[in-house]
Amino acid sequence: MMMKHNGDRYLYMILEFCDGGTLSDRVKKVKGFSEKDAVEVLHQVNFALNFLHSGFESPIAHRDIKTDNIFVDDVNQTGHVLYMLGDLGFAKEGNKQMNLQIGTP
Q1: How far is CA 62 from the centre of its chain?
Q2: Where are the domains of the chain?
Q3: What is the pTM of this model?
Q4: In this structure, is the dihedral angle defined by the CA atoms of residues 93, 94, 95 and 100, taken in order, positive or negative?
Q5: Any catalytic annotation for residue 74?
Q6: Residues 69-87: what's their mean pLDDT?
Q7: Are the C-beta atoms of 44 and 82 separated by less than 8 Å?
Q8: Which of 9, 29, 41, 93 has the fewest CB atoms below 10 angstroms from its CB?
Q9: At the fourth CATH level, which superfamily is domain 19-93?
Q10: CA–CA separation, 65 vs 62, rounded Å?
């Protein structure tokens, strides 16, 4: 995430462009994933969640994590695939417990 801005009623987030499609697209394209690749995806998604939960005054809950919402930047400057958590349309800011089921079941 490059920037966050609180407006009067809405939270605005500016995210980087990822030209590699989604994790769902990538799994279909490469016909599966190795355990090593899966661990790397989980590591990067965990990093993103940690940032959302602790990188702001109030934590942000994503609430719709799925392979279609993990975006792929095919190869960054180090030669590694970069996975980014996106589509924060159902995200909620704050510490309140959330009981409503939303997103894709």
Answers
A1: 8
A2: 19-93
A3: 0.77
A4: negative
A5: no
A6: 82
A7: yes
A8: 9
A9: Transferase(Phosphotransferase) domain 1 (1.10.510.10)
A10: 7
